[in-house]
Structure prediction request, 800 residues.
Amino acid sequence: MAKIAYQKLTDHSSFFWGLLGFHLLVIAAGLGAALYMEHHGHVVTGMSNQIVWGAPHVFAVFLIVAASGALNVASFSSVFNKLAYKPYARLSGVLAIALLMGGLAILVLDLGRPDRLIVAMTIYNFRSIFAWNIYLYVGFIAVVGLYLYVMMDRRVSRSETPTRIVGGFAFFWRFALTTGTGSIFGFLIARDAYSSAIMAVLFIAASFLYGLAFTVLVLLTMSRETRHELISEDMLGKFRGLFILFALAVLYITAVFHLTKLYAPDYREVETFLLRDGGIYTLAFWVGQIGIGLLLPLAILVFRGSGRHAWHAVAIAAPLFLIGGVAQMYFTIIGGQAYPLRLFPGMQVSSSFHDGVIAQYWPSLPEVLLGVSGVSLAMLLTGVALKVLPFLPRPASV
Amino acid sequence: MTGNRPVDEGRRGFLMSSVAVAATLLAPGVTLYAMGGDAAAAATAPASAKVRWGLLIDAAQCKDGCAACIDACSSAHGWQSAGHPETDAQWVRKITATDPKTGAGFSAPVMCQHCANAPCVDVCPTGASFKRADGIVLVDRHICIGCRYCMMACPYKARSFVHEPVADQKPDAPRGKGTVEGCTLCASRIDAGGVPHCVEACKTAGHGAILFGDLNDPSSDIVKRIATYRSTRIRADLGCDAAVYYTNI
Amino acid sequence: MIRGARIALLLALLIASQITLAVGEESKLVPHPPKGRGEQCVAATDFMRRNHMNLMKHQRDETVREGVRGKAFSLTGCVDCHAVNGADAKPVSYADSRHFCRSCHDYAAVSIDCFQCHASRPGSEKPHAAQGVGSTALAAVAAYFQGAANDRK
Prediction:
């Protein structure tokens, strides 16, 4: 195979600057929102003692899940030796790091005491999945950074071996990372809506889908910037196939997850709530995740995804998958908390502390801004990275 | 020293060396002064792993409309309502439960259950959520970063997040915005040989529904009572091994 | 290192201030922490100036995590003895720049968060009696800090 040539972004359209400027504005707004929340306390958010994790976590977990998935394209090329994906391997690594940083920034700024971040970085409780995750996150950035290095360094990349070894390690690491993120919820025995090992598997399947959606979206946007199609027709077909495969996997695991829960009488109550009576959460699930986020893009890709429509189909499906991802997180994170803890199963309970009632939650503007600014941070980092180093393939070698 | 916040290296080096010098140069008894006569109380011994503090709550004795335990706790620790029911802290609340089939029910106070296998302790990333040697589960608010994972993990909804700045705290009960808090079983009183405020208040109100004692001591009232009358613990099925027992629920 | 230098500078200034004070000219260049109640602090004054943060941090962990109470370096104790009265003859809070704990910190641009949670004025209840510390306790403190210093080597 011919040597692949790479490029950095050089002469910029006003579109590029416009995008960067937009993301900068959103980030500034997000930082302002974080300061505002930090100054007044979380009382200015929609969060409460019932819904302790709100919109910021929705975006943060979504980005972190997508980050590990974004690495897939690189893994295909180096671990599974699918050479067609190789031109995108660098971008996929950069995107993975950027998405993770975007997610982590939100998590940190949503802490009650962000000023104590240093504590979180230096004192660990090794029984905590959260603490493992801190290692997994930092390690992920390091491993992917190294991976980028062995792919890009002139001398090291002459041999295939380092790329394959580090790539394999990165692949393993990304599984650990998503498993860890999924387990943050899966290990919560207290909450009926979570408490399942399938949670981690579901998160892994979802990560494939969202990571790929981000990768394809960035490639399509940058095609406009470089004025050349960065995705050849051939590759478009491959991505389409992967999208369909991943989306079906998410659908399947989601179905298994809810069916097993429905089957156990103990969990039937919470499932009925989430899937039927949960108002906004039920909507987020059926309309957001399943309808807009999975079935609609699947239909588009299957029925209109080939031939001259291919480009449009993929360009529409990718953002739809991402919207579905946010809906999935909203449903999972907020819906799961809205259903009250059952201290006395089978009894009707009431108290001054909102026991036994469905919690109300409406995200406030600052927390939404903080959440969205994480996405913007990831995109800004990616944009700047593409400008600084040759991460994008040259069209001729695609 | 779990809670020691890391300090800037250079400065720490400076401090440490100066401390070491001062402490070695001065003979024992010279640097630290004994205080005047009013300082009779000796330093208390560290919490002992031989004991495990617990409560036994008799729902039959817990009277409708009485909130003595809650009022005592709130005024002692200063967690009064700030007018925002959704976000106001509640270290203890009374839950009224009714069986929808039979109509029978009970009401009883629920606070931190001071589990032996506390999920909040397991999940806390910094170790701020911890269990003392004597079984009391606390938040070390000096290293709590306010991530609220413990609140996600607690099956009892026993913890509150401080959503707003706090002013005019009690000297004995520091608390502040951005950290998670909950029932401390009045650890400072227990260390001084006392009983928790709720236990005392319930007794003063004439109900005596809450019994406090050492679950490891076979001769204690609490152990004798649970050995005689059947008691349960909330969500015992989860295997957290709570230190708060209930009867007549 | 900068902070280390800052302490050194501050200490030098403090010592200088004592000399100038002895000569009778009050210097406006240095902080003048109000004197605490009683004759002495819980440890030698210059030792306190340099080490109060570490002493308190150590005691903090001992109290919160192990349940040892009534020892010398209790924050409640500092607040009791070092209360500074305002115009209304009531102790000022940390919001007031005259508060003892701000007398040097403002000067040295140190900011502490302790009083976001801890009361910065003595309570109405019986003040916490600071406790006399015997030689064993001191030996323990000394050993602790030496241990900490040795760990670093």
About this structure: Chain C touches chain A at residues 113 (CB under 8 Å). Residues 35-146 of chain C form one domain. Confidence is low (pLDDT under 50) at residues 20-26, 126-153 of chain C.
